[in-house]
Write a structure and sequence with these properties.
The chain is of the alpha+beta class. The protein has 3 domains: 90 residues, Pseudouridine synthase (2-Layer Sandwich); 133 residues, 2-Layer Sandwich (Pseudouridine synthase), CATH 3.30.2350; 72 residues, Archaeosine Trna-guanine Transglycosylase, Chain: A, domain 4 (Roll). The strands form 4 sheets. Strands 1, 2, 3, 4, 7, 10, 11, 12, 13 and 14 form a 10-stranded mixed beta sheet that branches. A 4-stranded mixed beta sheet has the order 15-16-17-18, with helices on one face. Strands 5-6 form a two-stranded antiparallel ribbon. It is elongated, with a radius of gyration of 23 Å. The mean pLDDT is 91.
């Protein structure tokens, strides 16, 4: 039985190859690193490529925070073809001529899809209906009514048009389906469309320049791999940091909340954080993620917690 590496915590960014599920990629990373736990922060379809954030051991607790971040994709739209999966890996259900569609028509249509838009998730997706993934129901020929969702298309730019193909880039909020976007653009143009290619360029602050090809990872030595692991504290560097001493660190590790009064007694400056923040120990390790739930003003009638812990990280092994 292989040894389990319980001392490796954080993230590794993989450039997912085509033809593999995100689950398969995570499984292979887990095998290479010999870690007990691993997961990802957002599924990429098997035909898609690009940034897949793989969380390792205690780093798996980072996933809920990283999932909130915006995504950036490069995609190739194929006009005049509709499929059951909304991409070219599926069965063609409709074809239509596009000879009457102009570049100006395409540019105008793309502009309609910037900002907040309503989407219906594809049947071929990992969303569940009564505990069953929709893609399994779709394979049985079943169509389930899916609730609409509002997503935000923050940037949508056309990179190149060579009909019937349109290469575009999109920056969007979490939960956006690019296949659904392609399908909706095709319907708006009146000719139908599907995705021919999808590549995730960025997830939050992590882009392809931070990534490692899966095959490259599998050839690297343990020492080389360790250098590519992003520590938990660095992974959430966009969150403000509260640095604490060793005594308070032990308290946080037990899941107990810190109060401004405790910091004040130690002569520390009480931060006025809004929203989520990191709690960092004297060695620079991430102890916890917390959030502000009320004003940080000191209560006159004894201690009053104003923060709550969302996740506690045990990185002291």
């Amino acid at each position: 039985m292989a040894m389990v590496n319980d001392s490796l915590h954080g993230l590794i960014i993989i450039d997912k190859p085509p033809g593999l599920t995100s689950h398969t990629v995570v499984k292979r990373v887990k095998t290479v690193l010999q870690v007990r736990k691993a997961g990802h922060t957002g599924t990429l379809d098997p035909f898609a490529t690009g940034v897949l954030i793989v969380c390792i051991n205690e780093g798996t607790k980072l996933a809920p925070f990283l999932m909130e971040e915006e995504k950036e994709y490069e995609a190739l739209l194929h006009l005049g073809i509709e499929t059951d999966t909304q991409d070219l890996t599926g069965s063609i259900i409709r074809k239509k001529e596009i000879k009457d569609i102009t570049i100006l028509d395409i540019e105008r249509t793309f502009k309609k899809f910037q900002g907040k838009v309503t989407q219906i998730p594809p049947m071929y997706s990992a969303l569940k209906h009564e505990g069953v993934p929709l893609y399994l129901l779709a394979r049985e020929g079943k169509e389930i009514e899916r609730p609409k969702r509002v997503v935000e298309i923050r940037k949508l730019s056309i990179l190149n048009i060579e009909l019937p193909r349109v290469l575009f880039r999109v920056v969007c909020s979490k939960g956006t389906y690019i296949r659904a976007l392609a399908n909706d653009i095709g319907k708006s143009l009146g000719c139908g469309a599907c995705l021919e290619m999808l590549r995730r360029m960025r997830s939050g602050k992590f882009s392809l320049k931070n990534s490692l090809a899966l095959e490259t990872l599998e050839k690297k030595s343990p020492e080389e791999i360790k250098k590519r692991i992003i520590p938990p504290a660095q992974a959430l560097s966009s969150f403000p940091a509260l640095k604490i001493d060793e005594e308070i660190s032990r308290k946080v590790l037990q899941g107990k909340i810190i109060t401004p009064e405790e910091l004040q007694k130690k002569g520390a400056i009480i931060p006025d954080f809004k929203g989520k923040f990191r709690i960092i120990d004297p060695q620079g390790r991430l102890m916890a993620v917390a959030e502000t739930i009320s004003s940080t003003s000191i209560a006159k009638k004894g201690p009053k917690p104003v923060w709550r812990l969302l996740r506690v990280f045990n990185l002291r092994g």
